[in-house]
Amino acid sequence: MARRVDIDRDEIEVTRGEKVLALMLAAFVFVGLIWGYDKLDVRGGPYGLEAVSAADQAAIDRALNAEADLGQAQATRVRALEDLELRREAYRTALDAGQPAQSLERQYREAQRSLARSEQIEQRARARVRASAAAADEARRRATASSDEQRRDDAQITFLLRVGYALLALGLAYALLLALRGSRYFTIALACVGAAAALSLTVAADYVEDYVEWQQAGPLVLSIAGIALTLAALWALQRYLQRRIPVRRVRKGECPFCGFPVRANARCEGCGRQVLAPCSTCGEPRRVGVAHCGTCGNA
Hints:
This protein has 299 residues and is an all-alpha fold. It has five helices and two strands; from the N terminus they run H-H-H-H-H-E-E. It folds into two domains: 237 residues, no CATH class; 30 residues, no CATH class. Helices cover 67% and strands 2% of the residues. A two-stranded antiparallel sheet has the order 1-2. Helix 3 runs antiparallel to helix 4, helix 3 packs parallel to helix 5 and helix 4 runs antiparallel to helix 5. The two termini are 27 Å apart.
């Protein structure tokens, strides 16, 4: 029956293929993070004239209807004026030719009255436009202000969500980094950290010039949080390495405390500290820093 051979993971180097796969993994993870980042775009409600109240919409509708009536009245006046000119020319031609012109005169007088009526209608339409313009302008101003405020609120919520999303990605990546330290799959954690860092840079690039007031500190907050998380991960990694260093030194025949080469003597010639001590189980000499006794095998 084949026995499983345990290989010290500190002796195994990361291969070039693993580095390439880690780079590819980081790219694909970043694509997924960017997809989620793009989806975090809040639209709390309608914008522009879609957001007006019923009363403001009624005021705007009255102004639009008044403008439409004015346009129709202007077109009617233009047609009445053209008809008057035609009737007047026909009436004058008949008079110059000495022909009967009673019918043409009646048509001419009726065209004059039609023009006068169309001018009165146009004046009343202009008055309605002037009367409704102020209320409509105020309604549009309120709608624009409400829409701008809604956009600002939605943009701020989107910013906070995206910053939180980036910090969460960083936190999870660093947690994975700590969980896989010393593992053969440690490169997966490094790939995730790289993708999360790229996402953080994307957030900073998107908002570095936006929201000059309070959101100007957004990239700074993201930078400080990323630095803090990175330092925490490095601290945890150093703690792990510190625990591994004595074992590696003993395996190389060095002092677990200072790394000075150790011979058969019981104390280190470099730092003077004891490198051989009695085993707590069997009492035989045991190298300081090893996980198990070489005589009894106990921890």
